[in-house]
Specification:
Layout lengths: L26 H7 L8 E2 L5 E2 L5 H16 L14 H17 L6 E2 L4 E5 L6 H10 L2 E6 L2 H12 L8 E5 L17 E6 L7 H15 L15 H4 L4 H13 L6 E8 L5 H10 L4 E9 L2 E9 L3 H12 L3 E2 L1
Parallel strand pairs: 4-5, 4-7, 5-6, 7-8
Antiparallel strand pairs: 1-2, 3-11, 8-10, 9-10
């Protein structure tokens, strides 16, 4: 029996205005781009076309369709690896582009001479896909998992537009963020990171179970991880707070290599300690950018060690020749 239909907005207003996923999913168009999605599309309890978001195969098919339709990318990931919600990932890239815009005389610097580093690129290679497609940036992805790097490089190899513009490297020391990835003389315009959220495997499993039970009305059903995720993708010792703290401490030693560093912060309670560490390392400027989709609220913290004169020099040398919009 159909339930009384809720009034659904035509646009997801919390998403960034340039986000291609801002409108409700048009399953007809998505199926045209990726016909295999049709097997998973069926009416939901309100009679609208949808997929079962508790089914990992359906979620993966939806991602393949979105990436093909909006970004022209052929995409796949190994079984059991994190299948990222694309709208939120795209929002991070668009908000970072706006940050660079505010620091570049009101113009977004675009083109391959703008270099972005993704710490923890994952098997999905999702941030490089969006950053390269939307703004033409060059991207460096790093990860401690050889299988994730192999998968990311396979995605690059399958998409000619990314070849020569996206490079993914294995980080051989799990304690390092920038060492071994950025060369001593290399310049990166911005680093991005979606850190592991949980502090232990038990905590990560509990969080995944809550998501699954919220999606699946059958509380007796055997739980399946709909978005997947390897241990290192979901949790690390000390969780988000410790991961970001260590990254900030290490970023100080690369202060001249990078115009700005950034990270997602999911837990608002972590902000206080993160601001304290940024003060300890004497970051010249810090900005917090609110970001939200649906009922989830998160934020991006951006910091730089370059003073006003150094920032100006960076913009006038590296960004002056970049294509701006």
């Amino acid at each position: 029996m159909l339930q009384k239909k809720k009034e659904q907005p035509k646009e997801k207003l919390k998403l960034h205005p340039r986000n291609k996923n801002r409108e409700r999913y048009d399953f007809r168009q998505l199926i045209e781009s990726f016909p295999e999605l049709s097997a998973f599309v069926k009416p939901n309890i309100y009679g609208d076309e949808s997929i079962d978001f508790a089914d990992p195969q359906a979620v993966k098919a939806l991602n393949k369709a979105i990436l093909k339709h909006h970004y022209g990318v052929s995409w796949d990931i190994p079984e059991g690896y994190l299948c990222p919600p694309i709208p939120g990932r795209a929002d991070y890239i668009h908000h970072i582009a706006d940050f660079l815009c505010r620091n570049n005389y009101g113009k977004i610097p675009t083109g391959p001479q703008i270099k972005c580093m993704d710490i923890g690129v994952g098997a999905s290679c999702i941030y490089p896909i969006i950053g390269n497609h939307e703004y033409g940036w060059s991207l460096i992805g790093s990860d401690i998992d050889p299988v994730a790097i192999e998968s990311a490089n396979q995605i690059i190899a399958s998409n000619p537009a990314m070849q020569g513009n996206v490079e993914c490297k294995l980080q051989t020391n799990a304690k390092d963020y920038f060492y071994g990835i950025i060369r001593k003389d290399e310049h990166v315009d911005v680093s991005i990171c979606n850190p592991p959220f949980h502090a232990s495997e038990k905590e990560a499993q509990a969080g995944s179970m809550r998501k699954i039970h919220n999606l699946n009305p059958d509380k007796n059903a055997e739980p399946v991880l709909n978005f997947g995720g390897q241990n290192h993708e979901l949790w690390c010792d000390g969780g988000e707070e410790k991961f970001v703290r260590n990254m900030i401490l290490q970023s100080k030693k690369f202060s001249g290599n990078c115009f700005c560093f950034s990270t997602l912060i999911s837990k608002e309670s972590n902000l206080k300690s993160i601001y304290r560490v940024l003060e300890e390392v004497e970051a010249f400027a810090v900005e917090t950018i609110p970001m939200g989709q649906g009922n989830k609220i998160s934020r991006i913290v951006v910091w730089t060690f370059l003073n006003t004169e150094e920032q100006k020099k960076w913009k006038n040398t590296r960004w002056k020749t970049a294509t701006s919009r």
